[in-house]
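Recall that a protein's primary structure is simply its ordered list of amino acids. Everything else, from secondary elements to tertiary packing, is in principle encoded there. The following example makes that idea concrete.
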Amino acid sequence: MNYKGINFLKKQLFSKRNRVRMRYRYYEMKNGIKDFKIAIPNEFKYVSETLGWCSKAVDSLADRISFKEFDNDVFNMNDIFNMNNKDILTDSAILGALIASCSFIYISQDEDKFPRLQVIDAYDATGIIDPITNMMTEGYAVLERDEKYNILTDAYFTCEETVVFDYVGHREIHVPNPARYCLLVPVIHKPDAKRQFGHSRISRACIDLQQGALRTLRRSEVAAEFYSYPQKYILGTDSDAEQMDKIRASISTMLQISRSEDGGGTPTVGQFAQQSMSPHIDQLKSFASLFAGETGLTLDDLGFVTDNPSSAEAIKAAHENLRLAARKAQKNFATSLINVGYLAASVRDEFEYKRNQIYETSVKYEPLFEPDMSTLSLIGDGAIKINQAVPGYFNKDNLQDLTGIASSKLDVPTVPDDEESGLEQTHTA
């Protein structure tokens, strides 16, 4: 196989790092404000604002996608995931993919030759993707950094081996690869033919809308502080009179004004009406509406609580777009998680399995929206009616997928036949 080489992958990673770093800044609410430098006085340029809309857009989806298990697990991939802190592993990989469009899972072996799974964010890994299987034929990843963010260990992945470069020990470790693909698996959110590494949940529209909202917040904050007292004006002052500092005049409760020396009249003092905050609030709400439309959230999710609380059905209906986005993301992540399990099984067994050997394996998730008691009652009634029409259509396995509630493992008590006949005789009598 013809490889592009580690230097090519390093350049590819370097060209994408700024985008990844920017999106992590927005998720961590450490982004700056792109100000127009027009309306705000220089004395208030230091005022900074923070909004968590982008992190809300990511978390609202990440919190609803919870990996449960592999169904029809012919290679015991569930055991591999359970031994690698399944919940933390999958949640970290999914969260990183939603932020930066992709994350990576590095497969290696521990001291006991058991597969070891490690999540690597998009800032430290890249590769060449096979468009058919969404696995990589060649990859590069930074495995360890020091406190100053200098690289201590990195690795180059091919289909034949994994080469680990230890810069502290000045050594190069070659580890044979028993699998068919390299042991660096991408976890991708919304891939397409043009962008194989997917699309971030923090889109450009989300970034621009949050910037507009941040500028609105800054203007409203300065206006509330700077114009807390009504603006004053003075008419008829002497041209040679000493000019009062503008900021002091704006925030002072008492102004001292003297007559002119030539004996003229006293200057006229007045004040303007106090500034209203309604335009700022309306503009902020407008940005929130646009952001909600872009991400499938509601105004309630973004902090604009309505006067009349919505019912449970109305809340679910309002999050329909979010539900569809979560379903789409589940399908994308399912392929990636199956690829991880498939390659990890090859590493565990030291055997080159074929990808088509796990075509019947699927991924099961927890329900996107946990049902409340009223919904559980409706599900139960619907299951009874459907089972009457089609016996055995619903059982404890697929009902668990709808409700998220595991069935009891205790034995169901049964009544012996002689007791049943006795009960029937008693009722007859």
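The CA atoms of residues 249 and 267 lie 15 Å apart. Residues 320-349 form the longest helix (30 residues).
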